[in-house]
Amino acid sequence: xxxxxxxxxxxxTATGQRVTLRCSPRSGDLSVYWYQQSLDQGLQFxxxxxxxxxxxxxxxxxxxxAQQFPDLHSELNLSSLELGDSxxxxxxxxxxxxxxxxxxxxxxxxxxxxx
Amino acid sequence: xxxxxxxxxxLSIQEGENATMNCSYKTSINNLQWYRQNSxxxxxxxxxxxxxxxxxxxGRLRVTLDTxxxxxxxxxxxxxxxxxxxxxxxxxxxxxAGSYQLTFGKGTKLSVIP
Lengths: 115, 114
Known about the structure:
The complex is a heterodimer.
Chain A: E1 5-7, E2 10-13, E3 19-24, E4 31-38, E5 42-50, E6 53-57, E7 64-68, E8 74-78, E9 87-94, E10 105-106, E11 110-114
Parallel strand pairs in A: 2-11
Antiparallel strand pairs in A: 1-3, 3-8, 4-5, 4-9, 5-6, 7-8, 9-10, 9-11
Chain B: E1 4-7, E2 10-14, E3 19-25, E4 31-37, E5 43-50, E6 55-58, E7 61-66, E8 71-76, E9 85-94, E10 100-104, E11 108-113
Parallel strand pairs in B: 2-11
Antiparallel strand pairs in B: 1-3, 3-8, 4-5, 4-9, 6-7, 7-8, 9-10, 9-11
């Protein structure tokens, strides 16, 4: 068990809908990362938060947004869903940002299926 | 974009054999990490090698790093059926904005046949 909790584990929704994925980082970890994993694109970095502030953006679509709350949990909001958004969405946390040697701890992921 | 490119994309070996996976990366890094993923599950951190290190061992794992060639290799010795999984390399480094990021390759799918 990595200590990172993601809910829900599975989500099936229709095109055009909006969903929210939730992540609770390991206790004490300030940094949260979101990744999307699909068969054809591999593991794509979406966005990173550190202690409530956005720190880095990757290949995140404008239809997607995220935030990190004061209690350090994070939510990833996906709207106007398309079939191509079907993927595994992972959250990872790490102790700090700015260190040269930092490993990330991954949750079990949310499998999103858009039908 | 992917930081690392793993090679091979898929590898099938007999139990007891050694498995070697390679990774090349594009930009400068502070460290290179290897992760393992069982089918459809989360990634598990295996080992981290810093940019000023050349080789590191952890149990049956051996990682090398050649920063001049921007490449790394992961060797799993005496493989077991339970080692069957996908293995990803990830480069840890700083973005232009100064934030630390982990950028993953597409992975090597390892199958160990009992």
